[in-house]
């Protein structure tokens, strides 16, 4: 999977349809999510931030305003990718496309991995 811009896939629903892409049968350790076009470097790619499900809609992937600030971390703790695994066993992968550390529904990416536990850092490609 390759994403080039924030508008490619984002949280929420428009006209009754999910705005995010869904991936079924994602195999951790085999499949990759290629984010190399975003130019993430340094500490932002040192790990994947795992967030609690509180404030994340398990159906639409929307992040509540109270959780959006510093959703990807802050300062030296800011990461390019954050994940949230729902009670139903799906995982939302969020990408800080605008690199501001907070979740912005219109500019950051959201992808749903159906029936998949949170992917590991090795499941992402950050450099070409």
Automatic annotation (TrEMBL):
Gene3D superfamilies reported in the protein's UniProt record: Serralysin-like metalloprotease, C-terminal
Top-rank taxon: Bacteria
Official protein name in the record: Calcium-binding protein
